[in-house]
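Appendix B. Worked example

We walk through a single record from start to finish. Start with the input: the chain for Metal-dependent carboxypeptidase, Roseovarius bejariae, length 482.
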Amino acid sequence: MAHERETQALDRVAGRLSWDQETMMPRGAVEQRAEEMGAMQAMLHARKTDPQVGEWLEDARAPDAAGAAQLRLIAHRYARLTRVPADLTRELASLTSRSQSQWAAARADDDFAAFAPTLEEVVRLKREEGAALADGGDVYDALVDDYEPGARAADLAGIFDDMRPGLVELRLAALEGAERAPVSGRFAPEVQVALARELAERFGYDLNRGRIDMAVHPFSSGSGDDVRITTRVSENDPFNCLYSTIHEVGHACYEQGIDPAYHMTPVGQGVSMGVHESQSRIYENQLGRSRAFCEFLYGRMCDEFGDIGVPDAEAFYATVNRLHRGYIRTEADEVQYNLHIMLRFELERALIAGDLQVRDLEAAWNDRFKADFGYEVDRASNGVLQDVHWSVGLFGYFPTYSLGNVYAGCLHASLRADLPDLDEHLAQGDPSPATIWLRDKVQRHGGLYEPREVIERACGERPTAGPLMAYLKEKFGGLYPG
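Next comes the structure step. The output line below is what the pipeline stores for this chain.
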């Protein structure tokens, strides 16, 4: 564990380099940062695959449940990483550090062809990594396991196939109804950021152990006593800033809420990206977009911005939750969001399997988007180039977003049953009863349990998509009747 604590510390430093690259690093430092990241990842790989770790694992005995979880996580990581050559790890780290800036430039220019050769290299290396990890099994499953241990693509596809008809039906019914108007006016960036900070603290984010910065693609970074988030600002759309912040606060509160006894150990971080996403989505949607919290937020926005083009709190609730045409996953409503994820899941699964080539990816994306959403993608930045994930090698990550929504649906049903007066608190801008419930039931455990076990222990039953679909039908059936 002493060796592991040092490894965790170095991992945090590597994470800080990535955070800096997204927020403050000068543009001209890309090549140097790529070399730094390559060196860091090579050193970390060497520590994590040191034969001494294997010998320790053979001899180690766990004194308690936490110790058993530490050994389980270290052994799982050791078994996986010892299958991947160190040179491949270094090459991937260096390439993805460079490709991130190339993606950003291509996105700004709406030029997928300029980025495609780099993405081809990323996909090639990820296939190699996945094949090494799979050890004869399914390559995509091996990549998913990095983000959601134990999950299998076939099971995820089954969940998504069950959800799709209900989501499409809700989407069509809503878009055939009355169009909800967005807010209107100019929303000063500095006021948006100040209000975002207030909301972050209301949802329990400890700014003494965190900070809020700007990034093209909002994210959360770190764990323990240094957990940072980013957001972004649009002068015409304050919800982009406010709800991106609440979303990332959900991630950050998970990391800040883990039992301090686990800090700087494998158990001292979120157990999976699906469970992580359950926290960000429930903070953002079931709590932040609830009718009761919208009543509070409407008052605060009128205080700060004056007339926002919405007459009352009920109309504001409809505006916050409006279903609308759009291209961007991160700006999608609760109903259509999962359709965005299913598109990405199926495309990246085909890429890794070799059934789809990078040169054909943009056309495949556009065709699938037209089939799912009913209209054409207008430019690459609204389509295949909108997300950073593939540029940095995060294949297998996307399905955890929808899995997180499924988990959030289960958790929301359970916490509502336990907290019958929650709406009274939310209407006062106080989500703490729910966030305290989540900290106790989910966050404090970190990696102590397997991902699905975390949700099952919190809810008392095996997670399914049923509670999420029931919540969506009740909410959006009420907003878009008939």
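Two observations about the output. The two ends are 59 Å apart (CA to CA). The chain has a mean pLDDT of 95.
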